[in-house]
Design a protein that fits this description.
By secondary structure, the chain is α+β, with helices and mostly antiparallel strands. It is built from seven helices and five strands.
Length: about 170
Amino acid sequence: MLDIETLGISSNAAIISIGAVKFNLETFTIGDEFYQIADLKSSMDLGLEVDAETILWWMGQSEEAKAVFKDSSLDIKTILYVFSDWLTINPIIWGNGAVFDNVILSNAYKKASMKRPWSYKNDYCYRTIRSLYPEIEMKEIGIHHNALDDARNQANHLIEIFKVMRGKGLK
């Protein structure tokens, strides 16, 4: 499960953090985690975009969420290399929205002249599955709009949905 935080909503939005968790829909377990904060200047130098509305939106978020702007950060290209190494071979990438997380990260790889480490066939949309099971509530733990906490919450929610789909959840 992938979650990114950005300073825009276009497909070329500047990435400020990437969070991801590996999970298994057969065993219903969460595995390894990935979290990195990107240097905003490096995202912009790559040609990724910032928009004023998103900056204003961030100003209204919690102090805990805004800590992403104060923490140490790495060059976005370095993060993309590290993320590629962290992924398994032929990974499935779940993102929250058919045109957000996966697309923005794919575009960052393209702008960095790097090969995206997953096939277009393995772009999966968590938001679509979530909308089919509105009765299954997400239990949010951690900081809302922290990419790793959001990825964990989304993966756990997807696991709960799959339990129901397979007759092993809510009764």
